Amino acid sequence: DRTLLMVDEDGTGSFLAASYLARKGFPNVRRLKGGMAEYRRGTR
User: Fold this and answer.
1) Structural domain span for residue 28
2) What is the pLDDT of residues 8-35, one digit of tens each?
3) From CA 7, how far away is CA 43, in angstroms rounded?
4) What pTM does this model have?
């Protein structure tokens, strides 16, 4: 039922983690594209 949000510094690790969890049957996995670095750039 819950959505899992994967976040890391640049988006690379979160992509791998989200892909792995989706393959293992977790249907609601999302990631922060670009990671925290992109998030920080967008909040200035």
Assistant:
1) 4-42
2) 999 999 999 999 999 999 999 999 999 9
3) 16
4) 0.79
